[in-house]
Amino acid sequence: MEKYIGNPILSAKDIPYPASLVFNAGVCKYRGKYIMLFRNDYGYGENGHGQFSGTCIGIAESDDGIHWTPHSEPWIEWRDEEVLRAYDPRLTVVGDEVVICFALDTRHGLRGGIATTTDFENWQVKSLSAPDNRNMVVFPEKVNGKYCRLERPFPVYSRWKDRFDVWFSDSPDLEYWGNTHLVLGVEDVPFANDKVGPAAPPIKTDKGWLTLFHAVDLDTTRGKNGWEDKWQKRYQAGVMLLDLNEPWRVIGKCDEPIIAPTEEYERNGFRNDVIFPGGIIAEDDGSVKIYYGAADTVVCLATTSVEELLAMCNPK
Ligand code: BMA
To answer: Is the peptide bond preceding residue 155 cis, with omega within 30 degrees of 0?
Structure first.
């Protein structure tokens, strides 16, 4: 795993409209171009509360997956009487279409959204989950005739605090989701004590579905640790291997983080020590590009290979 020497690859200074934090991007390779949708929290402190006045999703394009040109306008800002903001997009090419997963904060809870597009100009929302759920990612092909997704519900009542896990559901049409299974519990990850969640879309290999997750550890001795008064969590990236036919079954998993916050741009920002992968591209030569939000402030790139990621997954 190598962090790109020119990191960050996208940050607020590159954006030609108001931008404060540019992070948590989804990326796909579609019709000969790399396309990125990224989260932009803007207007920091404008309301006098040390908060952001808005969040939009921006779009950028690239010919090599490394150097990015943002469009002159945001891609979408979703805000109405019910919806507060849409954010943290993930992109998967499935057949002819791009499936866009996103989180939607609403006045009645947090919903996981799924939409499709073929041109990034018109898009159709296919489903919005019941609250609270987010961090959805769709698999790049159907399994046993069904679309598949990983997701992360927030079972506050039964788990009594942040003890949130990775789940699986499938669907005949991207609209109706069921066949839900637990995939990965917090307790299954030695470097998490708080929550785990899906990261970028799975990659199909002959050994299984290779997929990243984020893992969070909480340490209450951490105090002011970023721009906020108190930030006591750390986010790191892990990788696991899921069974090809029963993708809710973990058959391999890393024991240690595969991307940990070590660099200045990961250790210091709005929220320190956050690695939040949302995009992955498996190239034809076996190399892999991983896109991750760092410190909730910038978009970064790490490169590896399918072989290296598989080697990190110890059999379960
Ligand atoms: C999660 C989400 C992400 C964010 C992360 C770290 O709960 O809000 O968007 O990157 O926290 O702050």
So the answer is: no
Q: Provide the domain count of the chain.
A: 1
CATH label of the domain that carries residue 196? 2.115.10.20
State the pTM of this model: 0.97
Coil, strand or helix: which one is 266?
helix
Query: Which of 104, 227, 274, 297 is the best mutation target for the ligand 1 pocket, counting ligand atoms within 8 Å of the beta carbon and taking the most?
Result: 274
Q: What is the pLDDT of residues 111-165, one digit of tens each?
A: 999 999 999 999 999 999 999 999 999 999 999 999 999 999 999 888 777 899 9
Sequence-separated (6 or more) residues with CB below 8 Å from residue 40? 12, 15, 19, 20, 21, 22, 55, 56, 57, 58, 74
**Strands laid side by side in the 147-153 sheet:** 133-138, 147-153, 166-171, 178-184
CA of 296 to the centre of ligand 1 (A): 7
Distance 292 CA to ligand 1 centre (A): 12
Question: Which atom belonging to ligand 1 lies closest to the Cα atom of 231?
Answer: 12
Site to probe by mutation for ligand 1, drawn from 87, 276, 298 as the one with most ligand atoms within 8 Å of Cβ, is 276
96 Cα to the center of ligand 1, angstroms: 30
Quote the CA–CA distance of 118 and 98 in Å, as a whole number. 6
Q: Which atom of ligand 1 is nearest to the CA of 276?
A: 10
The 10s digit of each residue's pLDDT in 90-104 is: 999 999 999 999 999
Range of the domain at 46: 2-315
Pocket of ligand 1 (CB under 6 A): 24, 88, 235, 271, 274, 276, 293, 296
